[in-house]
């Protein structure tokens, strides 16, 4: 399966020659600020399946915690991927073109979600990380 993605302005593009896994949505305050939204939408990718096909020189990186970071398009600001130890760890689902054949499996840190967000009933949600069910 070939998955492609790109930033808002189309200057940075990537492809994934494989499947995404472990899709999740995080509602912590850091993800809300990073994604300028109520939560993130993110899926893991095998680093060997991922490649930049255009605009890698336009990426800006930000290390949010030791060994963990994010990469953005320096032209339009789209958050494209997360990194771990300098390697692509996962991608933001909002930048994927077409159907990535994956669904959000669970929601993290709903205990600190924005007061204005209403979660739908029946979702798998964790107050904090996956070891603390809500």
Describe the protein in words:
- By secondary structure, this protein is mainly beta.
- The protein is built from one helix and ten strands; from the N terminus they run E-E-E-H-E-E-E-E-E-E-E.
- It has a seven-stranded mixed beta sheet with strand order 6-7-8-9-4-3-10. Strands 1-2-5 form a three-stranded antiparallel beta sheet, with no helix packed on it.
- Strand 6 and strand 7 (68-73) form a beta hairpin.
- It is globular, with a radius of gyration of 15 Å.
- The chain starts with a strand and ends in a 26-residue tail after the last strand.
- The model has no long low-confidence stretch (mean pLDDT 92).
Rg is 15 Å
Strand content: 35-45%
**What's the SSE pattern?**
EEEHEEEEEEE
The helix/strand class is mainly beta
**Order of strands across the widest beta sheet?**
6-7-8-9-4-3-10
């Amino acid at each position: 399966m070939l998955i492609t993605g790109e930033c808002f302005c189309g200057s940075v593009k990537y492809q994934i020659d494989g499947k995404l896994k472990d899709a999740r949505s995080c509602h912590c305050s850091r993800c809300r600020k990073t994604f300028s939204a109520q939560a993130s939408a993110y899926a893991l990718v095998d680093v060997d399946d991922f490649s930049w096909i255009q605009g890698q020189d336009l990426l800006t990186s930000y290390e949010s915690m030791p060994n963990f970071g994010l990469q953005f398009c320096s032209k339009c600001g789209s958050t494209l991927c997360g990194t771990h130890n300098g390697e692509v760890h996962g991608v933001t689902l909002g930048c994927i073109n077409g159907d990535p054949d994956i669904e959000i499996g669970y929601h993290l840190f709903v205990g600190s979600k924005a007061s204005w967000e209403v979660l739908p009933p029946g979702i798998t949600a964790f107050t904090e990380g996956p070891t603390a069910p809500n």
